[in-house]
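As the next step, I wrote out a protein sequence along with its fold in token form, included below for the reader:
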Amino acid sequence: MPREPIVVTLPDGSTREGMSWETTPMDIANGISKSLAKRLVIAKVNGVLWDTLRPLEGNTNLELLDFETEEGKTVYWHSSAHVLGEACELHFGCHLCNGPPVENGFYYDISVPEEFGRAVSQTDYAPLEHLATKAIKEKQPFQRLELTKEDLLRMFGYNKYKVHLINDKVPDGTSTTVYRCGPLIDLCRGPHVPNTGNITAFAVMKNSASYFLGNPENDSLQRIYGISFPDKKMMAAHKLFLEEAAKRDHRKIGREQELFFFHEMSPGSAFFLPHGTRIYNTLMSFIREQYWQRGFEEVVSPNMFNVNLWKQSGHWDNYKDDMFDLEVEKEKFALKPMNCPGHCLMFGMRDRSYRELPIRFADFGVLHRNEASGALTGLTRVRRFQQDDAHIFCMQSQVKDEMRGALDFMSMVYGTFGFTFALKLSTRPEKFLGEIAVWDQAEQQLRESLDEFGAGWELNPGDGAFYGPKVDITIRDALGREFQCATIQLDFQLPERFHLQFRTGTADEMSGFQRPVIIHRAVLGSVERMIAILTENFAGKWPLWLSPRQVMVVPVTGVVYEYAEKVKQQLHEAGYFVDVDVSADTLNKKIRNAEIAQYNFICVVGAQEMEEGSVNVRCRDDVGTK
């Protein structure tokens, strides 16, 4: 390729000179500062991720990304997955399947040969880390090579999983890339860090079973998870974070506090015990109070529908594998995974007038989704759940006000929990339904609603749903972890599919009807998942209003048992969850047991309290009362 002078433009508008097919992003970074070059993970060239040692091909807008950026983390962990793959091949003699970066690290799915004699276990972690560390010390360069599909099939002919991926992902007559580091050559689009030496701290974290492509009908595989950082202090901090997260694990606290459990007789469906059900019902009552104040009407809809409903809504084509279906009188039915199609039937059951709008249907109906068994994770990923689900049917002119109300609703709920949150506006994707003018108007209304809300927001262009723009809300818990629970989505498609309309009040009978806009919204999202998040956020120390164990009455001696029961009854009638400890334990032991069980208040009663008609109160959250 001919070398020609080029201009490289940086994000701050400054420029650097270079030579096409010669100057690399790393050259530019070195020209700015050695520390930047050392931190550099990946580049972005004209909006496309680019290997830092890959020559620039022409005039370029260049971004230099380090580990602190989301894209930098993704590439860093993707490169680390290759190091893990290299270690797995050397240790197990296995066939590699796929090894992507994930939210907190990376994993590799592998097929362990029978001759290895067993599945992956924790005993393999140290040998894998030793091999990975050896590869890192060797500073093996990541070398990019483009190959035709025919060459790829010959190269990976020994590995049926790679052959499947090549046949599935690479069109005939085309080519794609592989990357080599040390003895490993892997099918990969890249990009990557310059060499394995850029990975400073590496650890294998856990392993589990999986299926090829996530399909239970395919081969069973072994999945190994890892994490890496460019700084050993970051690794140490991460491990401390994991220790704290383990203490707060909702599955652990759920067992200790007897809130819920799971059973093999109904995988992915939680059994909520009495104390867990108290939390569940309190959350729903909290939302119901807001529904009452904010003009929502609660409805009850069926759990099972003929699949023709899901075909009409469009869910059957895209979602049927995640639905539970069954045959009833020679017709196929399915348990509902969402409420919106049923609510469309409710809206369309009679003529509607513009005077009725907005109509806000709220539904706590039970939902079922056929999640893969390997994906089930406590309350965060289940097959049976309930949502604080609502659908607002409104006119286009009402969207802005309804969005403002939905944002205020969300802010109030998350503020009560003590969560902070971030907002993103996701706009029209490349593939969309409807008219551009309608999309533009809707997006402008969302922008104005977000601006007036005043919490600050980011634009996420092109990431809206195909049926309408949406606002994505991410919350942050006490450990700084992020979760997406709430969603507010505009929908122009379902009103069309269900032929929904309302009378506009105009005299012209032909033009006197319009389609409503549907706003899908949920604040808690899955109640089960929110309970998991809240359990870990509060570390099992529930605030009084949400606590399943609010008061423990502790009698000093058996003489005051009857008075203790009277105190319990008075507090029970006042609406509190109260227990009395009439065990044979000592007074100090009873108090300690109540503290461990996280009762908010301990009311100690003795002869003096019985005589005075009083209690001696100890508050869990006030050290001065103990």
Q: What stands out?
A: The longest strand covers residues 201-211. The longest helix spans residues 70-92. The two ends are 79 Å apart (CA to CA). The mean pLDDT is 92.
